Amino acid sequence: MNIFKTAKGFWTSIVLAVVFGIVMQFLITGEIINFFYVNTLYFIGINIILAASLHLIIGITGQFSIGHAGFLAVGAYASAIITMKLELPFGLGLVAGGVAAAIAGLIIGIPTLRLKGDYLAIATLGFGEIVRIVFLNIEYVGGASGMTVTQLTTWPWLFGSILLTLLVIRNFTNSTHGRACISVRENEIAADAMGINTTYYKVIAFVIGSFFAGVAGALYAHNFFIIQPTNFGFLKSFDILIFVVLGGLGSMSGAVLAAILLTIVSTFLQSFPELRMIIYSLVLVLMMIYRPQGLMGTKELTSFFKIGKSSKGGVTHDKNTVA
Amino acid sequence: MTKTPLLKVNNAGIRFGGLKAVSDVNLELKQGELVGLIGPNGAGKTTFFNLLTGVYVPTEGSIELDGDKLNGLAPYKITKKGISRTFQNIRLFNELSVLDNVKVAYHSLAKHSIMSSILRLPKHFSEEKYMEEKAIEFLKIFSLDNVLHEKAKNLPYGQQRRLEIARALAANPKLLLLDEPAAGMNPQETEELMNLIALIRKKFDLTILLIEHDMLLVMGVCERIYVLDHGQLIADGTPEQIRNNPKVIEAYLGEEVS
Asked: Does the complex come out with an ipTM higher than 0.95?
């Protein structure tokens, strides 16, 4: 059994990540990297959480949901209400954002996840729009003019959230429960015939995914000075979808990598506003022509390191490791 | 032969709108039997399997396994009650490894919650380890232990069929339904399949219902045969009786010109 070996690699990567986080914290507080880059870093971090959370729904469970901005909005508004209206601490706002989005995910998931393919896509798209319209019409949260929010998102909160998101999703995926979700993606009828409660696992994946989208929403809201319903239109949903598809459906490291790359690309293209969307679209079109399986295919970053170790047949993908 | 029937189907049928796909099927399987279900294309054999496994809910009649009524149960619940199946067109979890395909079938055995997996509690490790070892042991019976980490889609056709049967058996069924297991196989692979069926009957305490077009296989391994035509049972009996039954010959070859 390679439980201990993999667990060792697992702890090393966590320690490395924490060290990275601390170093970044010093760089930020020491003002070694300027404000512009710090802001980009925050954007990247929020997008990583969004990408990973949608990856669980689309990449792992195979449920084509394109209303992710809806959960982002629910998380953003819920957390803003906690911190601004009720004047409670930010940490509580984060949790409330996640929980509110998870509840929304549960309510939306139970009826819509009976739908398949295109129908599910349309239904979730509709959900995203409904959320936006609802917030547009609630005076309590400022309606169309939005809600002013203090900047409370800091690197430790952001980094902690990223780490937690990636860890939870990874641990979930590499377990019998994650395998159940993958079996739904691979062949729902066969999964059913193997005794998997397919509806239950689709809803679970949806709820976990929306929880983290809500957490991202809380971080997103408190990174700006204002949140408005227009920030959460369906284009935002597509941005997140693109991370997952471009990274390679079924690969979390792919989704994370795509989130990092595309955020950087789109940030730097802000200096050329006329060309921005053209270049961005071009990147996507070229990518789909020359690498339709996405950046990583279904592989994970870690699988590149494992190939050297196991000479017998090799580990073809990450999902068959135990830990 | 005083055993109570394992599976009892009473007047079961299903209609899709005005179309009666299957009707008035009465069928009984005794513990440990190997029974064939044959019939011309479009006779409703696979639809009947779908009724048994809960993919379709019968619009008439009843289906009982060990005295428990199965009508209207979700497919995964029926699997847990003890009916497992393979599919006419192979339905493996293509991107998963051979090992993981079997582990999915063991999912209902797992006792660790989602939380214990997320927090990586000791229960997660012990349960996953137990499943892995059990799956490896199990795949040895089917001589698939040399391709454990291969993706299912990369296996040759014969092995994919074997893996599908292995996966169905891993769900620990009392009744195994095989939907055209020999479809697309060459004579040598069919021969291997017959040996495999003989092996699993010896190893597991199983009742098997088998749809097949390969008459050599059906006549060779089945103890009893039911014949379905236009959604209705037209005959049942030993292979010898079926072979000489004029109704069956008519269904397959058409009416005799007099």
From this structure: no
Does the pLDDT at position A314 exceed 70?
no
Q: Do A176 and B94 touch (CB under 8 A)?
A: no
Q: What is the pLDDT of residues B4-62, one digit of tens each?
A: 789 999 999 999 988 889 999 999 999 999 999 999 888 999 999 999 999 999 999 99
Q: Which CATH superfamily is domain B5-93+157-253 in?
A: P-loop containing nucleotide triphosphate hydrolases (3.40.50.300)
Show the CA angle centred on residue A71, arms to residues A179 and A172, nearest 5°.
20
Instruction: Tell me the chain B residues in contact with residue A173 when contact means C-beta distances shorter than 8 Å.
Output: none
B139 shares contact with chain A (CB less than 8 Å): no
- Is there a contact between A206 and A109 (Cβ–Cβ < 8 Å)? yes
Query: Is there a contact between B151 and A3 if contact means CB atoms under 8 Å apart?
Result: no
List the single residue in A176, A195, A196 with the smallest CB-CB distance to B128. Answer: A176
Select from B40, B68, B33 the least CA-distant residue to B54: B68
Give the chain B residue nearest A180 (alpha carbons): B104
Contacts of A190 in chain B (CB under 8 A): 87, 91-93
Chain B residue nearest residue A192, CA to CA: B76
Interface test with B, best of A60, A163, A176 (most B CBs within 10 A): A176
Q: State the pLDDT at residue B255.
A: 66
**pLDDT-above-90 percentage for chain A:** 57
Tell me where in chain B the CATH 3.40.50.300 domain(s) lie: 5-93+157-253
Q: Residue A322 is nearest to which of B74, B128, B168, comparing CB atoms?
A: B128
Query: What contacts B120, CB < 8 A, 6 or more positions away?
Result: A171, A323
Which letter does DSSP use for residue B185 in this model? Answer: -
From the list A1, A250, A316, the residue facing B149 with the nearest CB is A316
